[in-house]
From TrEMBL:
SUPFAM superfamilies: Cytochrome P450 (SSF48264)
Gene: LOC112275674
Matches recorded under InterPro entries: Cyt_P450 (IPR001128), Cyt_P450_CS (IPR017972), Cyt_P450_E_grp-I (IPR002401), Cyt_P450_sf (IPR036396)
Organism of provenance: Physcomitrium patens
Annotated binding of heme, by residue: C291
Statement: the UniProt record of this protein carries the keyword Metal-binding: yes
Name recorded for this polypeptide: Uncharacterized protein
Keywords carried by this UniProt record: Heme, Iron, Metal-binding, Monooxygenase, Oxidoreductase
Family to which this protein belongs: Belongs to the cytochrome P450 family.
Record GO terms (molecular function): heme binding; iron ion binding; monooxygenase activity; oxidoreductase activity, acting on paired donors, with incorporation or reduction of molecular oxygen
Necessary cofactors: heme
Amino acid sequence: MLRAIREDLDAKHEANFTEAVLTLGMSLSIGLLFGRDYGGKVFSEEIQTLVLTFKTMVKYLSMINISDLIPSLRWLDLQGIERGLGLGEVQLRKSIMALIEQKRLDKIRLSSDEIESGACQRDILSKLLSLEGEDRLDDDQLMGVVFALMLAGSDSISRGVGRAMQELLKQPLLHQRALDELDEVVGRRRLVEESDISSLPLINNIIKETLRLHPPAQLLIPHGNVEQCEVAGYHIPARSTVLVNLYALSRDPSFWNSPLEFAPDRFVDSNLTVQGSDFHYIPFGYGRRGCPGLNLGMITVQYALALCLQCILWRLPAGATISETYIDWKNSPDLIVDGDLRVDLHLLEGL
């Protein structure tokens, strides 16, 4: 990711940060699912097609659909969303099924010793393919699991890192504090490692504040109550569908001081955690319905942001405008950045 950004910066003094972190999220998700990095020699063509198709579908899913506001216009598909998602689903199914079949062939080629040692189960898809009996998944179920994990992993990582970088570019003093912390703890002679994350409290608090102000989802997944109950004076009948408004909770002025301000220092000496120590701060949900990838997602976003900050001194390209809510450059919906290397080039070659 950083090598691709550096090449863009060298060539045209601008790079699409949003696109780059989405690619990073895809790379990490695919590595967990298939055991390969999509840029590797194996599966290269299939994975590249999968990545491009998935990015297109994420774009359509992120659009405001006029048909949701005016259902009578749905049949017209004025924005081409239904058609785009339909074509994307066909291509996505084709790409994922090709990878599933390749995994099945790989398993057949393994020796009995390799199978017993677990060599064929070092990624999620291999584990799923090894299920037997009542636990066995058919192709449609495998498709659903793979797509859900790709969407949850790549989108949450890209949104977390992208939003954090946007807030830092709007606050130069906070940005510099984060760089100073990295220089003091890690330096510039080596790249930041996962083991360094616990020693970077400001970076961690920046991610926490990003998740508060820009939660991964505005509403938690639908819940239901078995029995009737009363919450805050409201009667809720039994078997109701309940939606928790995460957006409102994270901006509740009765709990948060200056709730619309991006202020990571609010988490200094605070007992609030992403695991749900207080219901005003549950960015990943809570309990059995909470995000199963919480711990992996947090460490990945923290590490990715730390690496981005350490390697490149980011700034906005000439002509970009900043407001309290967004950064605009040539009306691009993505975050476009400029910057200079902060570390020796040879360190990036190892990424």
